Amino acid sequence: MKRLASQLNGFTVLKWLIYLFFFVFLLVPLFSILIVSFTGQPVNIFGSFTSAKIFNSTMEKLSNMSLEAYTSIFSEGNSYFAALINSLQLGTGVAVLVTLIVLPIAYAFARTAMPFKAFFAALCTIPLIMPTFISSHAFILMFGKTGWVTQIYHSFGGEGVLFDVQSMLGIVLVQVFFFFPYALWPMVAAFKISDATLEEASQNLGARSWYTFLRVTLPLAVPGIVSSMLLIFTVSFSDFGTPIILAPKDLNLIVVESYREIAGFFNWAGSAVLTVIMLIVAAFFFWLQRLVIKGREYGTISGKPTKQKLNDHKGTITGLTIYTFLIILIPMLALGSVFLSSIATTWGHQALPDGYTLDHYKTIFSISGKNIWNSMVLAGGTLVLSVVISTFVSYFVVRRGSGGLDFVSSIPLIVPGIALGIALIQTFNTMPLHLTGTALLLIIAYTIRRMPYMIRSTMSSMMAIRKDIEEAAVSLGASNLVAAITVIGPLMLPGIAAGAILVFVTVIKETSISILLAPTDWAPMSLAVFQNLLRGEYYTACAMAILIIVIVIILQSLAKKITKDQLY
């Protein structure tokens, strides 16, 4: 009894409470959606432990489990199979294109004396601050039938449109130009860590610059490049915002199909099967990415670090500078298009709006003020919950070596937002935990979805704190829990603050979770923008989108100041 009492301290209770949180709101919903994919009917797991009637009903459903829903996918003409193939093709195409496009930019940032690096780096954040469904609408404003690029094209004698933006090609282009920063920074890091003296040796032996790049520089950066490609595939495959706006009716994509099955037809069997498939694909490529990083070592050994000599060839630098600017120009023009639409009286008859007004901003503050308030409250609640859980998860993983918590807290990285939303709806839509349609479940969903980013930030801060500081507090009479809160906590504040801002930013622009789980009374700004676009209220939607982007920019700037982030 005494041994049990000694083990049952504050840290132990806290650790098991965190495990309970992940078990109830992550593991059980994912397991529940797996069961539904076999039964074809909703299963109330929690209710089965509190009601004999629900338990008997659940057992009856389990007795009728079959693989029919999975085998039917491969039947002729099945739309689910077509959706899976289309999504795999989309993810593969986007991953390859992004890799090819980003390679020259990453090399320019890491290995050349290209001017304006800091300026270009700042511009590369533009794609990250725009929600993907806003980026998709921006492409319609640019390349649609009445888009300003199309208008300019017509003025030069062209007919029709440059390309059909509401097509697979349109989705690919939006994802390429707005997902490339996800691949850029890992590639920059890959180029930076490889030993530059090998390139110099190659050139001293008479090799030309292009030959050195292909045979020396590029092979050393292969792990980072392949890892980035797999990451882009996962992001593209799981993206909901772009397809929901640009996918035509005859183009089936798995994220759109799963949303339609649950939101439009309440088809639990179909949505569960599609959710499981999304999880399997995302998990496989996430595992593959980790395998690439850990499986091969491309590092070089050097007695002492050498200062890298940057490529200062004038022709190379000029070409890479122009190329980088042209790639970044597309997201900049997209952002400018959204802004012009937000202040336009009418737009579509010519390249520029017919007139300008601030009425749309007045409208969103007068009519959509509640959506703004909802976003702040929901993001604030998510921030508090994320900070508390993530800080202690980091402590248990770094200080106590808790591999179990490290693994469980990493699971949300492989769960697409639409999949998590469907799993939570199915699990909490009945008693005893009837949380569907409440702000609480929305906050929990946001927390689970974005917590891994917070954990990585706090974990880095935890690793930088010497353990003897905590031991000194304990030796002076403080308990382990008190020492962690009063000594380690304050030292972790920069990492906590940076992670908290990142969570706040991502929640503000979150789309898939909001669309599925947000109740009417708690609709955030991102959902209001989406609904306005569907209703054809494009000008007010753009005004709200600009407000979201401004908030995100301010918070990201604050995060950069807190972390004193110096990339160059």
Automatic annotation (TrEMBL):
Q: CDD domains from the xrefs?
A: TM_PBP2
Q: Which UniProt keywords apply?
A: Cell inner membrane, Cell membrane, Membrane, Transmembrane, Transmembrane helix, Transport
- Cellular-component GO terms for this entry: plasma membrane
GO biological-process terms attached to the record: transmembrane transport
Q: Which residues form the ABC transmembrane type-1 domain?
A: 84-289, 372-559
Localization (cell): Cell inner membrane; Cell membrane
Task: Identify its membrane topology class.
Answer: Multi-pass membrane protein
Q: Which residues cross the membrane?
A: 16-38, 80-107, 119-143, 168-191, 212-233, 265-288, 317-340, 376-398, 405-425, 431-448, 469-489, 538-559
Reading the lineage from the top rank, the first entry is: Bacteria
Q: Which family does it belong to?
A: Belongs to the binding-protein-dependent transport system permease family.
Mind telling me what this protein is named? Iron ABC transporter permease
- Species, as recorded: Brevibacillus invocatus
